[in-house]
């Protein structure tokens, strides 16, 4: 009886282990099946989403305009003052006073500095004394000459004595003139002790402080004054454009010149073309031009680098599109035109000129037709698109209502 009980006990343990194994295997199979089904559905959804995006890209469109557009030549220019003067002393001496502030706007004739004038005053007094002495000698020699003339007529003295006295009078006259020249030079030196501005302009940094001994040989002078009202901008243009510009200048046209900042996002000043250089730089193939700016608001500063735009022409009644709409390929420039069935077609174009966000083109296009401005990277010939109702930044673009088109 114990043997049967043992056999039954073994059978129960075996059956229990097998049942647990079957339950574990079944659970693993169910979890694997759920995992496969979930990720398969997610992958299908992603592929379907990508397929839908590819079939119907969203774009912004613009309407082609017909208008005038200016033609500019661009260059890098340097601002130069109309006049620039380095103020130097014309005599040697101690700098006593400076009568201007650095950066101050000074006028022609304004007193800028004073140099110690006492040595030159003493020298002037010495020369004036010498002149008085020589004048007295000259007057006495002239009186003697008149006496000798009378004595010669009476045969009291020889003609040689008279000739000698005439020569002595002439010598004294020369001495008096020399003394007068020394006096005039001393007075001029006194004038040089007061340094005045020869032009109207803005003073720079002072090179020498009061109390220093200044000399005419000092290389830097005292200060530099620049006349910046008006002011010039010097820039270079390729020689290929020279004849176009000269033709208008010779016809009396005042060509407009714009000066923009370094980032070309701000107009600093507007002026006119003043003159052209007399030779072409053979190393660069360019020629220098100079433009005049009134600069009343001091927006331009000496030696400042600016981006110059020279207006050379205006294209009348041109087809104008946003610059972003023009694409470039192996066969040249082209645009995507939106058709009535909400598909796009490629139109080859020729670029006539570019003016910032506007480009003048030629091609098989008409005013009012819509072209794609943004979203061109996903387009091909015949692509069906969704037109966004987002208002574009460019002023040329017209706001369009949103149109959702399903792909076939």
What this model shows, in words?
The chain has 408 residues and is α+β, with helices and mostly antiparallel strands. The protein folds into four domains: 1-43; 58-67 and 317-387, conserved putative lor/sdh protein from methanococcus maripaludis s2 fold; 73-80 and 227-315, Beta Barrel (Elongation Factor Tu (Ef-tu), domain 3), CATH 2.40.30; 91-214, RNA polymerase II/Efflux pump adaptor protein, barrel-sandwich hybrid domain (OB fold (Dihydrolipoamide Acetyltransferase, E2P), Beta Barrel), CATH 2.40.50. It is 33% helix and 35% strand. It contains four helices and 19 strands. It has helices at residues 2-55, 118-153, 159-192, 242-250; strands at residues 58-63, 65-87, 93-98, 105-106, 111-115, 194-196, 201-203, 213-214, 223-238, 256-260, 267-276, 286-293, 305-322, 327-329, 332-338, 344-355, 358-363, 370-374, 386-387. A six-stranded antiparallel beta barrel has the order 2-9-12-11-10-13. Strand 10 and strand 11 (267-276) form a beta hairpin.
Helix vs. strand class = alpha+beta
Mean pLDDT: 85
The number of strands is 19
Domain count: 4
Alpha carbon gyration radius:
48 Å
- What low-confidence regions span 5 or more consecutive residues with pLDDT below 50? 48-53, 394-408
Characterize the main sheet.
6 strands, antiparallel, barrel
Beta-strand content: 25-35%
State the separation between the terminal residues, measured CA to CA. 82 Å
Q: Helical stretch count?
A: 4
Q: What order do the SSEs take from the amino end to the carboxyl end, as H and E?
A: HEEEEEHHEEEEHEEEEEEEEEE
The CATH topology of the largest domain turns out to be OB fold (Dihydrolipoamide Acetyltransferase, E2P)
Task: Assign a percent range to the helix content.
Answer: 25-40%
**CATH-assigned homologous superfamily of the largest domain:** RNA polymerase II/Efflux pump adaptor protein, barrel-sandwich hybrid domain
CATH architecture of the largest domain: Beta Barrel
What top-tier CATH class of the largest domain fits best? Mainly Beta
Instruction: Give the overall shape, derived from the CA principal axes.
Output: elongated
Strand arrangement in the largest pleated sheet: 2-9-12-11-10-13
């Amino acid at each position: 009886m114990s043997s049967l009980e043992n056999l039954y006990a073994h059978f129960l343990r075996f059956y229990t282990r097998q049942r647990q194994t079957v339950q574990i295997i079944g659970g693993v199979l169910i979890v694997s099946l759920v995992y496969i089904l979930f990720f398969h559905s997610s992958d299908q959804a992603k592929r379907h989403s990508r397929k839908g995006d590819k079939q119907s890209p969203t774009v912004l469109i613009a309407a082609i305009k017909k208008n005038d557009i200016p033609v500019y030549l661009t260059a890098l220019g340097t601002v130069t003052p109309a006049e620039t003067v380095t103020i130097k002393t014309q005599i040697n001496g101690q700098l006593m006073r400076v009568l201007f502030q650095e950066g101050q706007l000074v006028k022609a004739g304004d007193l800028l500095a004073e140099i110690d004038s006492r040595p030159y005053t003493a020298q002037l007094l010495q020369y004036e004394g010498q002149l008085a002495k020589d004048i007295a000698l000259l007057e006495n020699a002239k009186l003697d000459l008149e006496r000798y003339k009378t004595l010669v007529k009476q045969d009291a003295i020889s003609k040689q004595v008279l000739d000698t006295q005439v020569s002595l009078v002439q010598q004294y006259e020369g001495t008096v003139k020399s003394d007068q020249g020394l006096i005039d030079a001393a007075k001029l030196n006194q004038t040089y002790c007061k340094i005045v501005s020869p032009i109207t302009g803005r003073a720079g940094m002072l090179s020498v402080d009061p109390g220093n001994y200044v000399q005419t040989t000092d290389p830097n002078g005292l200060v530099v004054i620049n006349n910046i009202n008006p002011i010039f901008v010097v820039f270079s243009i390729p020689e290929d454009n020279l004849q176009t510009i000269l033709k208008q200048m010779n016809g009396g046209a005042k060509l407009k010149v714009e000066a923009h900042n370094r980032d070309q996002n701000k107009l600093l000043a507007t002026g006119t073309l003043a003159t052209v250089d007399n030779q072409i730089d053979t190393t660069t193939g360019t020629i220098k031009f100079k433009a005049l700016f009134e600069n009343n608001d001091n927006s331009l500063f000496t030696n400042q680098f600016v981006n110059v735009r020279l207006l050379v022409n205006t294209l009348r009644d041109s087809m104008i599109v946003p610059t972003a709409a023009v694409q470039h390929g192996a066969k040249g420039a082209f645009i995507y035109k939106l058709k009535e069935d909400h598909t796009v077609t490629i139109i080859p174009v020729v670029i006539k000129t570019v003016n910032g966000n506007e480009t003048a083109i030629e091609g098989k296009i008409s005013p009012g037709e819509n072209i794609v401005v943004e979203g061109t990277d996903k387009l091909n010939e015949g692509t069906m698109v969704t037109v966004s109702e987002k208002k574009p930044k460019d002023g040329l673009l017209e706001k369009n209502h949103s149109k959702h088109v399903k792909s076939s």
